[in-house]
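Field log, afternoon session.

UNIT: design team B
ACTIVITY: writing a sequence onto a fixed backbone
BACKBONE:
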């Protein structure tokens, strides 16, 4: 009999908090109030693995776990560390978290997880065409979809804009650090960034995620933005990462599925399943250049 996973524990690792909840992944809803623990300092892989284990213990969870990290993850290995401790680079994170919890753990990029949740259950549900989700927080994360199929591991927060990395110019953290009003940030930073991204990718749908998608915050800046694409705030708000992480845990359960021409593959699953398999020809992990620096030697 074909086996499908109906619930998984989703964990979203952020710069200030590690949040989790059991999720009904058929409906995209939390099965219990989310539980949050502060991100340990320094946020090394080992310390975070301890926090992940503490969340698992809190929910007395016994099944598959999906976990986000704010970095590119390929084959269960972290490849970049723009806003996290550099010791993450090269860490076999899926294995580390599995050892710490004693459970199967799937790991994926935080923005990809939020995007999966939004396309499956939220603002992008049923969308056909090109959709781009951008999360504005400490950095800028991106998740790109075509007909709801994820092109994983994009890093559009790292394009150059006005001589700076986009996330050093237009992230929510920059708004706070530079004391910008919502209006100054929206018009002076987010608008030029969105224009540039629209020129590069020509999406039909743009979804803005992260903490800034909270209705009160969105009301302060969303209406000031003008895009050719339809522009929407993330519908699942801050739960998107948890829901998308839990959904990615489907990749851990081998399934037999009757495939009809009509249904085809489930788009995000293919990508997240691939992300858990160590690649034979894994590229040497590289640090993402920071502060507008170039990786090219001068
Ligand atoms: C990282 C991305 C991440 C984003 C949001 C960026 O600095 O490079 O992988 O998705 O921050 O956390």
């Amino acid at each position: 009999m074909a086996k499908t996973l109906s619930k998984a524990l989703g964990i979203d690792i952020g710069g200030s908090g590690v949040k989790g909840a059991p999720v009904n992944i058929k409906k995209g809803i939390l099965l219990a109030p989310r539980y949050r623990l502060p991100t340990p300092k320094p946020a090394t892989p080992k310390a975070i693995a301890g926090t992940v284990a503490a969340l698992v213990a809190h929910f007395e969870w016994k099944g598959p776990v999906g976990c986000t990290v704010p970095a590119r993850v390929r084959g269960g290995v972290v490849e970049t560390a723009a806003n996290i401790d550099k010791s993450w680079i090269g860490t076999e994170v899926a294995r580390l978290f599995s050892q710490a919890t004693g459970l199967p753990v799937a790991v994926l990029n935080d923005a990809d997880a939020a995007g999966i949740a939004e396309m499956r259950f939220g603002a992008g549900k049923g969308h056909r065409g090109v959709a781009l989700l951008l999360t504005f927080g400490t950095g800028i994360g991106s998740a790109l979809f075509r007909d709801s199929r994820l092109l994983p591991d994009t890093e559009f927060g790292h394009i150059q804009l006005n001589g700076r990395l986009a996330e050093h110019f237009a992230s929510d953290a920059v708004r706070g650090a530079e004391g910008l009003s919502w209006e100054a940030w929206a018009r002076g930073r987010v608008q030029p960034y969105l224009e540039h991204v629209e020129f590069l990718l020509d999406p039909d749908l743009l979804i803005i995620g992260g903490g800034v998608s909270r209705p009160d915050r969105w009301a302060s800046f969303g209406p000031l933005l003008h895009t050719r694409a339809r522009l929407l705030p993330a519908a699942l708000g801050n739960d998107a990462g948890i829901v998308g992480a839990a959904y990615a845990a489907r990749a851990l359960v081998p399934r037999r599925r009757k495939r009809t021409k009509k249904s085809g593959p489930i788009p995000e699953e293919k990508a997240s399943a691939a992300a858990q398999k160590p690649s034979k020809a894994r590229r040497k992990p590289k640090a993402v250049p920071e502060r507008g620096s170039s990786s090219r030697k001068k």
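LOG NOTE: The mean pLDDT is 89.
NEXT ACTIVITY: expression trials, pending approval
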